[in-house]
TrEMBL record:
Superkingdom of origin: Bacteria
Record's protein name: Heat shock protein Hsp15
InterPro entries: S4_RNA-bd, S4_RNA-bd_sf
Keyword Cell division (UniProt): no
Domain annotation RNA-binding S4: ranges: 9-70
Alphabetical keyword list: RNA-binding, Stress response
Organism annotation: Bartonella apihabitans
Molecular-function annotations in GO: RNA binding
Tagged with keyword Cytoplasm: no
Length: 124
């Protein structure tokens, strides 16, 4: 395959189409903040071209995800369509930690907060 026949897509567009981030401007900020690696190389240009087969390591707010690009999007479609654009290679222990964070229980009430403050005052 020659270089001209390999289809490519901008990194920020792909992140938006794959539903990794909510908006394309957030995707650009994520890339500019050096939070995305393509094949283990830090990328800081949103216009960087990716192709099928590239491995993306994305550092999000509370987790790190590893995706292998399996397709290039043409639009931001439904989640089912977005999942066809990548294969999730995130290590299982990271996924387990993410589940623990999500299922840590309901939000504390005002009563819980007051009890915690009383407890912390006793410790001092």
């Amino acid at each position: 395959m020659s270089e001209e026949t390999v289809s490519r897509q901008r990194l920020d567009k792909w992140l938006f189409f794959s539903r990794t981030v909510k908006t394309r401007s957030l995707a650009a900020k994520l890339v500019e903040g050096s939070k995305v690696r393509v094949n283990r190389v830090k990328i800081d240009k949103p216009g960087y071209s990716i192709k099928v087969g590239d491995v993306l390591t994305i550092r999000l707010e509370r987790s790190v995800v590893v995706y292998k690009v399996t397709g290039l999007g043409e639009r931001r479609g439904p989640a089912v369509e977005a999942r066809l654009l990548y294969e999730d290679l995130t290590p299982t222990e990271v996924v387990a930690d993410r589940q623990n964070i999500i299922s840590s229980g309901p939000r504390p009430t005002k009563r819980d907060r007051r009890q915690l403050l009383r407890f912390l005052k006793q410790e001092m």
